[in-house]
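Deviation from plan, reported transparently: NAP complex.
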Amino acid sequence: MSKKLKLGVFGLGSVGQGFYELLDQSKNPNLEIKKIVIKNPTKTRTIESSIFSTTPTDILDDPEIDIVVELIDDATIALEILKQSLQRRKPVVTANKKMLAGNLEEIYWLQKKYETPVLYEGAVCGSIPIIRNLEMHYAYDRLESFEGIFNGSTNYILTKMIDEKINYDKALDQAQKLGFAESDPTLDVKGYDAKYKLAITIAHSFGCFVKPDHMLNIGIDKISAHDIRYAKRQGCAIKLIAKAEKIGNKIFGIVAPTLVPLENPLASVKNEFNAINLVGASTGLQMLTGKGAGSLPTGLVVLADVASLLAEFKYSYPKVIPGNPVTFEKDALINVHVSFVTPGAIHPTDFEEFTGGYQGEDAHFMTGWMRIKKLEEWVDRDDLSIMVNDDTHFKVYEPKKEREFSLA
Ligand SMILES: NC(=O)c1ccc[n+]([C@@H]2O[C@H](COP(=O)([O-])OP(=O)(O)OC[C@H]3O[C@@H](n4cnc5c(N)ncnc54)[C@H](OP(=O)(O)O)[C@@H]3O)[C@@H](O)[C@H]2O)c1
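Because the crystal trials were delayed, the predicted structure below was used instead.
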């Protein structure tokens, strides 16, 4: 694909605008936008109106358009655009993590079927080239685990709440105004956005496809002033962490507010920055960090993906191996700190291993090892705030053996 490429772009919101500006500034003679399909034709735009359309087939059925750049905020329509593009042998660049995470295995097979690539660096950790590193740098390393700050909006909110004592609603409002938050902010604060990225990263790290619904996500919306004081006393930051770990042939993963010791470099990653700690058998611990959201950081990686199609780059999914016995296991034990206001709201017997607790005048907490299945029952309880203790690993859950009684 060394000729001049004509692009059809779906969506000109935060990311689309950044992509458009950067492509314009690049003056790359081999890349030209032919059409931009948007939803609302009455919106005021700064770009000349003849380039716009509201008809998807103006891109999909135009034989002159070589590449589809999908940057809309609707996962269902985005999947349809992706499928129709691949059927017409048009490579796709997208940043739509929700669409990708929910359908990645199918998208993997569609790329093979139509021999047409889909690139999506912008879908995970904004400007950090994580997918490309997993594809190339880590292709021959056996990854053991990763943990990361995968959502710029929640990291921005937690930074403002903890460092500047700004309240949750005001911090969320600021994140939205700065363009870090998703159109639907519950996707950010409840941990869904980070979970979509976790599912994509697990596929490229361990060669295992897992649907987001199969993983637990706990949001930051119940973090209290007591939790923040507790974290500070313990020498910890609170971060929304997405993490996964390989134990034997099983992959475990979760998204949750996490008490991160200050000596972990993730603790000092602030505002809209994202980061990922990767632990490989040969490489040991490595951290990548950078801006995780926003118009230009994400627009830039979208542009890098488009430009790399000029060099015929495609993902090879080196960890996806036929017959690979690695599977995702939802249940595991994880070490948590649970705080609550009403005495008796939870009980030490709720834990598989209870390790301690505190009952004060206005705050209570308990810590210990819990089944992820049990946490799932608690995740929507407004009276509980759940944080994972970061200095621990997953433990494989083994049911306690029933005591055998004998009448003899
Ligand atoms: N914002 C970020 O920092 C960031 C970072 C990484 C990934 N992403 C992902 O990038 C994608 C775009 O995000 P965004 O923040 O740029 O969203 P956004 O600012 O809300 O913009 C969405 C754009 O999609 C267009 N659109 C919606 N439905 C459409 C349809 N059916 N047909 C054509 N156009 C349609 C909208 O058109 P109108 O202009 O007519 O309303 C708008 O231009 C999402 O998948 C998001 O998850 C965003």
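Residues 176 and 331 are 34 Å apart (CA to CA). We consider this an acceptable substitute for the interim report.
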